[in-house]
Amino acid sequence: MALPSTHRWVTIGRLHVRNHARAPETAPQHRIDDLFAALRAVEGQPEGRRNYLSDDKRMWTSHVQQDDNYVYLMIEVGDKRIADPSFFDFQANTSRTGIKLATEGGHFCAHVLIARQPDRRNKYLILCEKVPGVQFYSLTAHLNWLLRGFPKSIEIDGAERAYTGKVVIEGQQSRTLQDAIDQGSLQDVELVGHKTLDAGADEDSPVREETRQIRWSIKRRVSREEAVKVFSDAFTKLRGWTPVEGEERHLLVRIKSKDNQIKTSEITSDAEAADEAAREALESTFYLNEIIKDFDEDLTQSYSDLRQDVLNKMRALAVRGE
What we know:
Blueprint: E1 7-19, H1 32-42, E2 50-52, E3 57-66, E4 70-79, E5 86-89, E6 94-97, E7 106-115, E8 124-129, H2 136-148, E9 152-156, E10 159-163, E11 165-171, H3 177-183, E12 185-196, E13 209-220, H4 224-239, E14 249-256, E15 262-267, H5 274-281, E16 288-293, H6 308-321
Antiparallel strand pairs: 1-8, 1-11, 1-16, 2-3, 3-4, 4-7, 5-6, 7-8, 9-10, 12-13, 12-14, 14-15
Helix pairs in contact: 4-5
């Protein structure tokens, strides 16, 4: 996916750090400073680079900085699955293709801004530049992977018991799912589940987590009742999905707007009946996306350092979102 040199979309949300559900009830809580400390600890270190998708993709963080109000960092992604890039000459009406080595992949960088002070719900404003491979979902997965490398421990009955933290990112309210469906088309519904593998399950295996995904493709406009049926079936499937852990199940919905922008929402419901949960889902909200533009220098798909002009525009959005 090619990125424009003139503008970027920025996703706005709220971040919360807490203990994992399996942590002892009396265990001290993980907090935002634990996440910031982990980010600084792995910067430039091999253990801070996460391979996934059969080692075809790699994600890591870099350039962690802070001021009185925010922590700034770069999320970087390498992707070996991208095709060789092609370029078109507007004068000669010819094209050429760049050659990517077998060991190479696309390199994409995204600026991230996180508030240092919480809101009244004890959640922290977060803004993330949208580039291929970096969305709130993938960022959440990476930060949770990172925190698992920095467990805390508590003594229970004379024995030390380790436990980890968990990051949750919620989208800032934009508009309801029903509004988006009315004006666009339902692209797909994706069920995502994670299962943590106990260290003692197979001592010879380094694998500690399994991820399973099911995607239902729709790609057309649907009526309200059709949407309720799709979401009801999805909640039924999700709640009966035994190979994954209950609290690690996610339902992602993607909508294509009338201006062809794909928007993603993670929807949840505590309603007991799947049909009721589906109707509640239609009132859930999409992540708020804002555009930043009018840069003096062209934007690039990767950066060697944080760009202050990008951060300045993201700070302006943050002030409006607080």
